[in-house]
Design a protein that fits this description.
Among the domains are: 132 residues, no CATH class; 138 residues, Periplasmic binding protein-like II (D-Maltodextrin-Binding Protein, domain 2, 3-Layer(aba) Sandwich). Helices cover 48% and strands 13% of the residues. The protein contains 16 helices and 12 strands. It has a 5-stranded mixed sheet, with helices on both faces. Strands 7-6-8-5-9 form a 5-stranded mixed sheet, with helices on both faces. Strand 6, helix 6 and strand 7 form a beta-alpha-beta unit. Helix 15 packs antiparallel against helix 16. InterPro entries: TRAP_TAXI. This is TRAP transporter solute receptor, TAXI family. Keywords: Membrane, Receptor, Transmembrane, Transmembrane helix.
């Protein structure tokens, strides 16, 4: 019962050779254009808006400092998004600022008051927002039989550790002393790191130490609970905040350290700059988004000196805020990052580069594809005209002596050409060219047969094949 189907299948396979449109030829004709467009788009994708790096260097602070502790939290937050944060320890704010300018770090914690707007713009630095207040802590060793120090002028002749070179506290404390009329050299200055300075204070070899830090720092927590060590009360804190606008007046409430033991036993007035996250202007905008989102998670809660949601903030910083960070503080995280992973959202954010590249290339290059397609189809027919012309030339140039032999050879060659032409697959819209070629083959055949008849008058009349 399947036997009658075979001729039909054979007939259908022949028909399929002649279609209205050739997908294969279109693909081949469009391939160079498509490859060019893809290449240009990829080049634009990587050069115009490169992918964010997988590693970033964060300048932190001294051992056991709040900067070091928060640096670890940022590293843990960003590694969840596939970004490795390398922590670069330093003496503090001033060294971090110098490392930023020299390109040793990409982003760092910097204390407010360390620089100004003009200098930051000149060095290509921008703020990602203020993170928390870090009071100026002045811890003094209590002396038996003597009243506590209540005025900074009483520090004359005392041994005070200002902090190491590169930290933010030495510069700030010098400004505070100058406001009180205490000249340079009237206080014996030490420049130890916070941890060894604490040991020196506890051993009684220095009279006090100064550093700026968030209250979460382990050394702060320890010193606030150490007998014989007293925190200095800046009872003129409001005046300091007016004299130095980058400072704010904050209150350390009674009992905040330990309610059960009532530590501290009284309220303390403190003056506090703010810790700011400062980045180089070449930090990728996607990483800016990540750091600001991490900052909101790490610093957004209530604390000893802040209310819920007060930080991070675009306020309290003298350094211009990065546009991406400002956008976050105004509108929240980018729309796509609310529903997608960081890298997938970043990919779609960068797709605008592809759209621009495609718009610039597709329209002009699309005009090239149709002529290429037509040329490719017609070339299947036109290339046989070269063979046909070669047959005619050999017939015309045939020597008198071997004329019949050449005619017979070229007639045979013509039959081979016709067999091959009959196997050519071509869309129906170009079939006129194929039929024209076959008619021309027939024309050349008739001419050869005519010449063969003239060359052999006794031969029977030639009949076209």
């Amino acid at each position: 019962m399947y036997q009658p189907m075979k001729p039909l299948r054979h007939h259908m396979s022949k028909i399929l050779k002649f279609t209205q449109f050739s997908i294969r030829d279109l693909v081949v004709a469009a391939a160079p254009t498509v490859l060019l467009i893809v290449g240009v788009c990829l080049l634009a994708y990587w050069l115009v808006d490169p992918a964010p790096p997988r590693t970033v260097r964060l300048g932190t602070g001294q051992e056991n400092s709040a900067y070091e502790d928060f640096g670890k939290k940022y590293a843990a937050a960003l590694v969840k998004h596939g970004v490795k944060v390398t922590l670069v320890p330093s003496a503090g704010s001033s060294e971090n600022l110098r490392n930023l300018k020299e390109g040793k770090v990409d982003i760092a914690f910097v204390q407010s008051g360390s620089t100004n707007e003009e200098a930051a713009e000149r060095e290509g630095l921008s703020s990602l927002g203020s993170l928390f207040v870090e009071p100026l802590w002045l811890f003094l060793r209590e002396e038996k039989g003597k009243p506590p120090i209540t005025q900074l002028t009483q520090l004359r002749g005392k041994k005070i550790n200002y902090g190491p070179k590169g930290a933010g506290s030495p510069r700030l404390f010098r400004q505070i002393l100058e406001l009180n009329g205490v000249e340079k050299g009237e206080v014996e200055r030490f420049s130890l790191a916070n941890t060894p300075a604490t040991v020196e204070l506890l051993e009684g070899r220095i009279d006090g130490l100064v550093f700026t830090s968030a209250p979460e720092a382990p050394l702060i927590q320890m010193l606030l609970q150490t007998p014989g060590i007293r925190l200095f009360d800046f009872n003129q804190a409001e005046a300091y905040s007016r004299k130095l606008p980058f400072l704010t007046h904050v209150m350390l409430p009674q009992g905040i350290v330990d309610l059960g033991r009532n530590i501290p036993s009284e309220d303390y007035n403190l003056i506090a700059p703010t810790a700011t996250l400062v980045a180089r202007e070449d930090l990728h905008s996607a990483l800016v988004d990540l750091f600001v989102q991490a900052a909101a998670s790490i610093h957004g809660g209530a604390g000893w000196f802040q209310q819920q949601g007060q930080f991070p903030s675009a306020k309290y910083t003298e350094i211009p805020v990065d546009p991406e960070a400002a956008k976050y503080y105004k509108s929240g995280p980018p729309f796509l990052q609310r529903y997608m992973t960081f890298w997938l959202a970043n990919f779609f954010d960068r797709m605008w580069v592809l759209v621009v590249a495609l718009g610039a290339l597709i329209l002009p290059l699309s005009k090239v594809v149709p002529p290429l397609y037509v040329w490719r189809i017609r070339s299947r027919v036109y290339r046989w005209y070269g063979q046909l012309r070669a047959v005619e030339q050999k017939v015309e140039e045939a020597p008198q002596a071997t004329r019949m032999q050449v005619y017979e050879e070229q007639l045979k060659r013509l039959n081979e050409i016709e067999d091959l032409v009959n196997q050519v697959s071509i869309p129906l819209s170009f079939a006129d060219g194929l039929y024209g070629l076959r008619s021309h083959i027939q024309f050349v055949r008739k001419r050869i047969l005519f010449l063969m008849g003239e060359a052999s008058p006794t031969a029977p009349e030639a009949v076209p094949v």
